[in-house]
Design goal:
With 248 residues, this protein is mostly helical. The protein is built from 9 helices and no strands.
């Protein structure tokens, strides 16, 4: 089953790279277009935070408050990191900080998704009730397709911040590389990871929401067409919601 796990997460990583490759089709950096894509990325991240992370975490945890605790800790983790960054990097630009936080939050979000795939395939090995090869493959397929807009959500804002197309694509691609490694951890430690997975999922969701509220939406709203930017956030949320609900 570990081979299925590796193949499944190589697929999810590949779809992330495919989404990140859309950045190669932009001929020029237009501020309005880039602000719209930033708002779109914010919508994708908000939707992914709930449908991909918090919703399954709540299903696993039941009435256990661990999900709320994990969500708060995720936000606090980014908040503290933000303050440390500001203290030690007075000479760097706000755009660089925004890039770092965006990359970190999306990468962090991919870790529990990879673990979830590993746990799904590992559960078959231990004969855990409800674990089947078909359901595990369906989970990997769903996460993979969801990764397409997430890859775009990383690479396009990087282009907006002045990165070259190749660098934006490379970083967007690398944001998904953690999934195969975290999937193997989830597979090998399935019985232990199942217990803490709700906390990990919620932690990643809290970190993503912090970045969206602190950086992405405020930056997209510097555009004079604030109303249009808000609509792109709604569109991003709707797209991710459709993918999550349809493929879950």
């Amino acid at each position: 089953m570990i081979y299925y796990t590796i193949l499944a997460t190589l697929f999810t990583w590949g779809v992330t790279a495919l989404g990140a490759s859309l950045v190669m089709f932009f001929k020029s950096v237009n501020k309005t277009l880039m602000d719209a894509m930033l708002g779109f990325a914010a919508g994708i991240m908000i939707s992914a935070s709930f449908f991909s992370l918090l919703s399954p975490a709540l299903s696993m945890a039941g009435k256990n408050p661990i999900v709320t605790i994990g969500f708060i800790f995720g936000g606090l983790f980014l908040f503290i990191g933000d303050k440390i960054y500001e203290h030690y990097s007075d000479n760097t630009s706000d755009s660089l900080k925004r890039v770092i936080m965006l990359i970190f939050s999306i990468t962090l979000h991919n870790i529990p998704e990879g673990m979830a795939i590993g746990v799904a395939f590992g559960s078959i090995k231990y004969g855990i009730d409800g674990a089947t090869l078909a359901s595990s493959i369906a989970l990997a397929l769903g996460i993979g397709i969801q990764n397409f807009p997430e890859g775009t959500a990383v690479s396009v804002p990087l282009l907006r911040e002045g990165f070259s197309k190749k660098k934006a694509f490379l970083i967007g691609n690398l944001s998904g590389i953690v999934e195969p490694f975290s999937a193997i951890i989830g597979y090998l430690l399935v019985l232990k990871i199942r217990v803490i997975l709700p906390f990990i999922l919620a932690f990643a969701a809290g970190a993503m929401i912090y970045v969206v509220v602190e950086e992405l939406i405020p930056t997209s709203q510097t555009n004079e067409r604030k109303d249009l930017m808000a609509l792109f956030t709604i569109l991003g949320f709707s797209l991710m919601m459709i993918l999550d609900v349809t493929l879950s």
